[in-house]
Amino acid sequence: MRPRITLKLATSLDGRIATASGESQWITGEEARLEGHRLRASHDAILVGVETVLKDDPELTARLPGRSVDQPLRVVLDSRLRTPRTARLAGENTLILTSNEPRVIGAARVQQVAAEDGRPAISAVLSALSAAGVTSVLIEGGGQVAASFLKAGAVDRLEWFRAPILLGGEGRACVAGLALAKLADAPKFRRLSVQVVGDDLWERYERL
Fold first, then answer.
1. Is the Cβ–Cβ distance between 145 and 77 less than 8 Å?
2. pTM for the full model?
3. CA 74: distance to chain centroid?
4. CA 146, CA 7: separation in Å to the nearest integer?
């Protein structure tokens, strides 16, 4: 059985994760970010694409005030192995999945998987995660990774934090192109709840 996949989004009202220049910290407020850390702590793994690593250099750890947390596995999809050895997540408890020949990147484990269109195939990524004992994954970026999992029908839940700002059409979309031929092909979800978190809204969805 494949891992359960949750896509977490932190966006403006119009679904943008950054300005045209790439500025994104912080779109949502402190309360929403704390809920994001709670979501991290409740999953076996956190997954991002290499563009997120190159732009933000994230730690991808769960940090909750007042208590220690068993840290989830950090997973990077990196087709051309561009993750720097100096990246904050290039240490133990990190799995880098690539379509290239593996090479050493810090203390991270690098694993080659089958490719599709030059990127790690989602089916191969899910198989590798299952083999690593992962049963739940939180996807945190970026737009291309989100689109790839959505197109593969692999996103089971959405955790969407929406800030009361507008960034406009030139802002960076939370989901890259899905190449939909017709509306009937769009991924469909059912809203489970809407909650006010500070100045933001937290919307939760499950796949139909």
1. yes
2. 0.94
3. 11
4. 7
